[in-house]
Amino acid sequence: MQATEEVAYKAAVQAAVQDDSRSKAIIVVTAVFLGISLGSVLLRCFVRTRVVRAFGWDDIVMLLAMALNLAFAICGIQGAKYGMGRKLLYFVEYPDNFERALLCWWLGQIFYVITCVLAKVSIIITLLRITVSRLHAWILYAAITLATAVGLVFLLFTIFQCSPVPYFWHQGSTSSHGTCVNKDTLIAIAYLYSVGAAVTDLTIGLLPVALIWNLRMNQRTKFAIIGVLGIGCIASAAVIVRIPFVHSYKDTEFLYNTYQISIWSNVEAGLGITAGCLTTLRPLIRFLRDGSSASRNRTPGSFPLSSNVAQGYRLSRSKHDRPGSHQLWTGSENDEYHGVTTTILGSSHRPNPTSSSEEDLNPKNELPPSGWKVERSVRVSVRDDL
């Protein structure tokens, strides 16, 4: 009887060693969403440094989020190689990997929380730039406070859930001594964080509807901008999907049954960064469509008028122009002109240049003494053959 049990035990160990499906799932999902988020950040940096030539605080915060997301991904991939997504019987054959897998899990959750909070902060900074309503601004400030608060609480509980701290990954060792907080408490904190993160994502995903809806622009452009700015709702979906798996924190097969948390945490972080970067990529579409000549001729701090100019800029002056004025015209000298003329008056340097890659959706009526002034006039050509 004892020999039969020993054979069954060895067979179970070998089955656990061979069952790497969950570990592979962690690696694949982590790699995919790391690639997507990294690509979106690189495109964002290209737009902000080469196309619009304006690099702001929202870009810096997003770069920090991407750096931490990279660290999170490394922990996930390396942790999966050590045993994340594996049953306890796997560590009978590889006992040294147990502590390494737990350490990677612990570090990964720390990087995950900070990554998601920073991504939300970056998106909110971008939205605050186009907000004119005080109510909308207060909503965004409340969202950034909520995201930071619940993230900080979850971060501190994750770091200090065991005393001493290293006991979390040494708890499988008979020579290590320490205590950890009740798992139900940790689960409650995880639920609190998940709900707070979902509310924040929904807020920054739906608020753009209110920000853009009353602006004077055609419906197609309006819905396009709302769609791009509202991509934050996608990240909230990953948070919501992750919530039912939080209970696995107290599972005996911790590394095996928390693989869904690892997967959806990577999805949430990757989508959050990608959503925040897509809102800045509209100038890239125009850059690729119209060529790079316009952006090369523009100087840092110049107006991002690429949405209104289809074929680049040409500065022209006529005897009827006022001194110091320039007109933006996209045709050739022999082309017949009709439509709207934009006349810019003032100095050659714009005061207080914006660091936004989005067009100014909130034009101010105030004009600094040495600033720019934009006037619009209409010239219509009449052709005899019409």
From TrEMBL:
One of its GO terms (cellular component) is membrane. Residues 343-372 are annotated as: Disordered. Coiled coil: none annotated. Residues 43-286 form the Rhodopsin domain. Residues 343-356 have a biased composition (Polar residues). The chain crosses the membrane at residues 25-47, 59-80, 100-127, 139-160, 191-211, 223-243. It is found in: Membrane. Belongs to the SAT4 family. This is Integral membrane protein. The lineage of its organism: Eukaryota, Fungi, Dikarya, Ascomycota, Pezizomycotina.
